[in-house]
Amino acid sequence: MKSKLCLICLLGLRALAVQGQTKINSMETVAKPVTCKLTTPELQKRKATVIAELKALVLVRKELSNGFAYEFSGADDILDKLNTFIKTERVCCVFFTFQLTVEADKAFLSITGPEGAKEFLKEEVDL
After folding, report:
1. For residues 73-96, average pLDDT
2. What whole-number distance in Å separates Cα of residue 31 and Cα of residue 28?
3. How many helices (H) and strands (E) would you count in the chain?
4. CB contact at 8 A, 100 and 83
5. Do 1 and 8 form a contact (C-beta atoms < 8 A)?
């Protein structure tokens, strides 16, 4: 019985690790490091194109304790841009958590993460 329980525990820990955080105990987790996978020139190009375009579309920017929240128009073309941004950004910055909420005429994007993610957003992404 103990071996089955240990196997179940190990499988559970492995599943959590695959999701990006390994649960140590009920109160503690190990977070992903706050580093972008893009090279400096790639990040600069992204800031000058995709991110600059989105930045121009931000209606409201709100600082959160662990990131930022942004309000956009809910137009279909803007939703497409937000989805594309999320799909590409989550590949290079795996430490971010994205939440997109859409209402009839508005879209809200929050980008949060572990300690250091907010500063990374402010200094490197500058959205």
Report:
1. 90
2. 10
3. 5, 6
4. yes
5. no
Residue pLDDT, tens place only, 46-59? 667 788 899 999 99
Compute the distance between CA of residue 90 and CA of residue 77 in angstroms, rounded to an integer: 20
C-beta of residue 104 within 8 angstroms of C-beta of residue 98? no
What one-character DSSP code corresponds to residue 93?
Answer: -
User: Tokens for 123?
Assistant: 């200094």
Within 10 Å of residue 88's Cβ, how many Cβ atoms? 13
DSSP letter assigned to residue 59: S
Residues 102 and 25: their CA atoms lie apart, in Å, by 35
Tell me the CATH number for domain 40-125.
3.30.1360
* Per-domain boundaries in the chain: 1-30, 40-125
Number of CB atoms found within 10 A of residue 37's CB: 10
Q: pTM of the predicted model, to two decimals?
A: 0.69
